[in-house]
Structure formats: structure tokens, C-alpha cells
Design goal:
There is one protein chain. With 381 residues, the protein is α/β, with parallel strands linked by helices. The chain has 11 helices and 19 strands.
Length: 381
């Protein structure tokens, strides 16, 4: 598909592979780890997910942008992805919710992208060679400039990105789930408890929809920075502690692991994504980098306790080595590659999942986990 904007752009990967296409979004240059997401929709939620910090996201679905963008679909205060790669962007969105086009949204946020490249070839290359650093440059790009930009981009392994996305001061979150007209009648909100659950949420890069669902399930949510000492959390007398998603290498956030280790056994804990990895490391497990990660809204996961299979939304490049959990057990397994997708512990009130039960975007199969958290808090009040 031809673009209205004909300015060329180049994507260069660190192994020397080059793709030439058309500039999309803001003009300029950007670097990051090039990854891919298999979701057919939800590009705005993906772009604003803090877990994509320092990553250039490739959408595997070819036609992106057809329903535009709107203020209700953001998952953080800004676009977090370092860049965006699409095959065929839609120049004229059509939706009653649209407030603007995807390209204008990228331009307004200074996000550099590239379009009109063979994204199938790019994704196959990443699957074969693994996720790797890349650089996108609009216009003419000298090889020396591209290579210099790539050399300056640090690898994802060993990188602490939590401090780049976490809040710097505690705050209270009060907004519940946003429902479209008629949705509340089809899916009634959960019943509110007689006394709200006091939840302290560690912000490692939390998505808004997680906070909305906690509120919908009767929680009074206080969000705290990712490096908040455990003693400060306990001083708030929480009924439960939530460990959020976030970007980077879990092995690089030792401060978070130490704080969570001090909270185990003191209060019920629920972790998602990076929060799951941090909890696992606090329980003695190792984490490791996946070849190309799991990113998309169609990832099959089996609950080991029930045998039930959930189709889940995922976004992670690291995984937990389930064989090294001390006392804890693997509760969920990825059916594509057998990796650990969740953990629980017979002696402590805690559990976590690697995937995203809040969806946004993605299926709602795992939404029951928020109710599991409230029941865990009920049992330990």
C-alpha cells in the first residue's frame, strides 16, 4: 500500500539486516530493542504500555490505524514505545470513538516509525535470530550514523528501566473501569465489599487498566514508587500489596526483589508480569531472557490446578525458571513453549501470573484473578 507521505525511512538491525520503507509518525531517529506483537487491535494500548519502554514495536497484523486513537484507550500518561513498525497504516480512520489518526498521534508524541516494509519477513527474522537492537531513521541515512546510533543503545539484558517509568511520589487512584454504553448491563461490575480493601500497588510501570480493575473490585488503591521500602508499605497497614508490570530485566531491579522478600508472609501479594518475575526472584528463582518474547493477545496458558486453558494477553521478554522456585510451585504454563506463566505458594498468601489478566488489549479469560486477590485479602484480614 502506498503512503501519502513518501519520505523514505530505514530500519537497521544490529546484525546488519536492513529494511527500507516510508517514514511514519514523527520524523527523526530512534533506537531500541525490536520486538513484535501479534494482536490484531489495541495498538494505542500497546504504544502506551510502560512495559514497552526502550522497545521498537512491530505489529504483525498488516493494517493498523483503521479505528484511530482516543483518550480513553491509553494505558499511561504518554507513549512509552521507542518506535513503531507497521506494514500498511490507515490514513483515514473510521470509528465513532476516534479523536484523531494514529500517524498524527505518533507525531504529536514525537514517536518515530516506519511503514511499507515486509513485516512478515522482519518477524520471521526476529523469530530465527532473536529480538535485537535496531535503529529507525527518517530520510537519508548514512551507514556510519546508523551504526553509531546502534552502538550507543544498551542491550535489554541487565537494564533497569523501572526507574524510567515509575512514579516518583505516592498517589491515590480512584477511577474504575471504563464501560461502553450498554456494557454494564451485559457485564455487571463486581459487588463492593462492606469495607474497601486497602491495597498498596508498587509502580514498576503499571497499566491504568490494572488500577481500574482493582478499584472495580472494591480496592482503595495507593500507588507507590517502585523503590519504596517494605517498611513504608507496611506502615500504610494494607490489606494487600500489588506488584505491577514493567519494563527491563528483572535481575537488574534488586531493590524491588529485596523489598518484596521482606513483604512475603506479612501481607497478601498479587503480581503481574514484571511483578511476577520480581516475586519469583524474591522466592529464590532465577529469570532468563527469552529468544523473542511473548507479545500478543492470543497466548494459550493452562491453569495447572484446574486444567482450564485461558487465552491471554502477554508482553514480556524475560521468563521465570520454574525449576528453581523455593517452596513455591508453578501454577500456570504456557502451552506454546512450556514456560512458567504463574506461581503460588502453599505456605504464604501470594500468587502471580506472567500474563496480563487486565487485558487492554486482549481477551478477558483471566479476569477472575482480581477476585482471587480480594478473596485472599478477605481470608487474611
Amino acid at each position: 500500500m502506498s503512503l501519502l507521505v513518501r519520505e523514505p525511512a530505514t530500519l537497521l538491525l544490529e546484525d546488519g539486516t536492513r529494511f527500507v520503507g516510508a517514514a511514519f509518525g514523527a520524523r527523526g531517529a530512534t533506537t531500541g530493542e525490536v520486538v513484535f506483537n501479534t494482536s490484531m487491535t489495541g495498538y494505542q494500548e500497546i504504544l502506551t504500555d510502560p512495559s514497552y519502554k526502550a522497545q521498537i514495536v512491530t505489529m504483525t497484523y498488516p493494517h493498523i490505524g483503521n479505528y484511530g486513537v482516543n483518550a480513553g484507550d491509553v494505558e499511561s500518561a504518554a507513549i512509552q514505545a521507542a518506535g513503531f513498525i507497521v506494514r500498511a497504516p490507515c490514513p483515514a480512520p473510521s470509528s465513532w470513538r476516534a479523536e484523531g489518526s494514529l500517524e498524527d498521534y505518533l507525531k504529536a508524541n514525537g514517536v518515530v516509525g516506519i511503514a511499507d516494509i515486509d513485516t512478515r519477513a522482519l518477524v520471521l527474522h526476529i523469530r530465527e535470530r532473536g529480538a535485537m537492537r535496531g535503529v529507525i531513521v527518517s530520510g537519508d541515512a548514512a551507514d556510519a550514523d546508523l551504526e553509531a546510533r546502534l552502538a550507543a543503545e544498551p542491550p535489554m539484558t541487565g537494564r533497569d528501566l523501572v526507574r524510567a517509568v515509575s512514579c516518583t511520589e505516592p498517589y491515590t487512584w480512584t477511577a474504575g473501569l471504563q464501560r461502553l454504553p450498554g456494557e454494564a448491563e451485559l457485564h455487571a461490575p463486581p459487588a463492593k465489599p462492606a469495607r474497601p480493601y486497602r491495597v498498596v500497588a508498587y509502580d514498576f510501570g503499571v497499566k491504568f487498566n490494572i488500577l481500574r480493575l482493582l478499584v472495580d473490585h472494591g480496592c482503595e488503591v495507593t500507588v507507590v514508587p517502585g523503590d519504596t521500602p517494605a517498611a513504608d508499605v507496611l506502615a500504610r497497614s494494607p490489606d494487600g500489596v500489588f506488584l505491577s508490570n514493567g519494563p527491563g530485566d528483572p535481575a537488574a531491579v534488586g531493590y524491588a526483589v529485596d523489598n518484596v522478600r521482606a513483604l512475603i508472609g506479612q501481607v497478601p501479594i498479587f503480581g503481574i508480569c514484571l511483578g511476577h518475575q520480581v516475586l519469583a526472584r524474591a522466592l529464590g528463582a532465577d529469570t532468563y531472557k527469552l529468544k523473542f518474547g511473548h507479545r500478543g493477545g492470543n497466548q494459550p496458558v493452562r491453569d495447572e490446578a484446574t486444567g482450564r486453558v485461558e487465552i491471554t494477553s502477554q508482553n514480556h521478554g524475560f521468563a521465570v525458571d520454574g525449576a528453581k522456585l523455593e517452596g513455591a510451585q508453578v501454577s500456570h504454563v504456557n502451552l506454546n513453549d512450556g514456560t512458567c506463566e504463574g506461581l503460588s505458594h502453599p505456605g504464604y498468601p501470594l500468587f502471580s501470573v506472567q500474563y496480563h489478566p487486565e487485558a487492554s488489549p486482549g481477551p478477558h479469560d483471566a479476569g477472575y484473578l482480581f477476585e482471587r486477590f480480594t478473596k485472599l485479602m478477605d481470608a487474611h484480614r
